[in-house]
Write a structure and sequence with these properties.
32% helix, globular
């Protein structure tokens, strides 16, 4: 296994909902990375499963699909799109079934019009 530098250590807020759900370090921009990409590309598959969150990626990987990455949200940034194109030939999108996930799915496929099937 190759070594990767740690880009963040997230923490989840447990409160009345007045705080952001996840606490991220100052200066960290989640739109610049795909969580678990360094492990997913080691598998040698040219396809990637894309999920929303850290724990989604961990669960999918533990279920036997280690070629999984997380957006850390349900929207795709230009940098994340560049990373997906650079590291995969096929993308399987598995966002949550809630309103935000369905909207993210629509936006993703709208941005990749002609590619999504």
């Amino acid at each position: 296994m190759s070594r990767a530098s740690s880009s963040l250590m997230p923490g989840r807020a447990i409160d009345d909902g007045s705080e952001p759900r996840y606490k991220l370090p100052a200066g960290f921009h989640k739109g610049q990375v795909l969580y678990n990409l360094h492990r997913a590309v080691e598998v040698g598959e040219r396809g990637l499963i894309v999920v929303e969150g850290f724990f989604d990626a961990i669960n999918v990987s533990q279920a036997g699909y280690p070629f999984v990455v997380a957006l850390m949200g349900c929207s795709l940034s230009e940098e994340q799109e560049r990373l997906l194109v650079a590291h995969s030939d096929q993308v399987v999108l598995m966002l949550d079934g809630d309103d935000a996930g369905r909207q993210g799915d629509d936006e993703f496929c709208g941005a990749w019009r002609g590619i999504c099937g």
